[in-house]
């Protein structure tokens, strides 16, 4: 258009009037320069529009370049975070070391810190693992600590220490039986190693209420027995029960609890069978994956049953109050020993004490059973002090277990069937047996520490948990009319499982304290 306009006469006249001295040919360059100046803003606008569109396209979510940009940004972010670990403020304390391991494979604080709490909402159904801090609490500090600056494992260790001290100060035997639907620790009829007299479910007992109780101390908590953790504590060790048939009750309970936690049951086997047990008075189970054994030695009095030759050629059965029981050489190197006696001291021969008790060559024509009991326990205590190294072996004595015969004794019509609930604590008239006071007196005079499992009152409340008429299957018609009832021993699963929970808590405490000493 500029060229057309320049060629018109009108524009020629105008141009000559403005610059009359310059020829027409000289007018073209100025006109061209003017047009370029007019087009420059348009070109700049077009260029800016192109750059803006390109930039928006690159940032678009559909752009192929955006993921790479994000990845690069993320990489820089992670790299900055990684470097920040090494550029920690000098005033900030270094991250805590990892928790140390205790003997038996437990981390410091494992087990007791998880001791289930009583009260509403308390979870007793699992292995006892405590809930850890929430994710928000753990994320509140970069170094793994929580909002108050204390790391989770330090809190767990502190909780462990507090639990240990609370149980050591607490009378765990003062408490109550509380209903707990997560019990028993193993299913009735599931353990093949329960002897017939204790196997109430197999023998026909079908009520299950007596299985749904746990012991709750008044002032502290004891952990639910984890068979797996117990086996870890027993790795490479021998645990031996020595005593009467009530200790056998407890031994079978522990074997069943531990076996229940093992996946491959074929790796739990008898080192000696029932045949040898009846002949030699010993019985043992091996837990092969843990290289440990749980054993029982039968010795109802803890002193030696004896036969003394008489002048007429006959032999008199006596009880040697001055000689410890005869199988002791087989277990004196055990890592954990649990003794008991008391049940057989109530039988006719021992309670009368006539021509039965012997020391040296002397047979007492008459000796009171309590005096004889003290002499026997003194012999036991002397053997412990002479043969046991307390730095290597833990020694326990399990207290007297109550029976609940009514209307007679075991051989005179005594009964305890049709009992389905424990005694209520407020209505139970508890009388501490004189024999257990004698035991406490003897233990005070010993140099070797003995842990006293004082289960007497605990068992006194449980009139509902004996085998009673379910001590054997398939009763005859005559036995049904006048059955001999067992109101001394306990059904399994049942009350002896709680004795083992108390044993477990004491072993756990000892192992934790040993771990602290080794790592201090």
Automatic annotation (TrEMBL):
Coiled coil spans: none
Protein's membrane topology: Single-pass membrane protein
Listed Low complexity bias regions: 102-139
Biased composition (Pro residues): 92-101
Pfam family, one: PMR5N
Residue ranges, annotated region (Disordered): 86-158
Trichome birefringence-like N-terminal domain location: 168-221
Domain Trichome birefringence-like C-terminal as annotated: residue spans: 222-505
TM segment ranges: 38-59
Cell compartment(s), UniProt: Membrane
Keywords assigned by UniProt, alphabetized: Membrane, Signal-anchor, Transmembrane, Transmembrane helix
A GO cellular component entry from the record: membrane
Family affiliation: Belongs to the PC-esterase family. TBL subfamily.
Protein's name in the database: Trichome birefringence-like N-terminal domain-containing protein
Native source species: Eucalyptus globulus
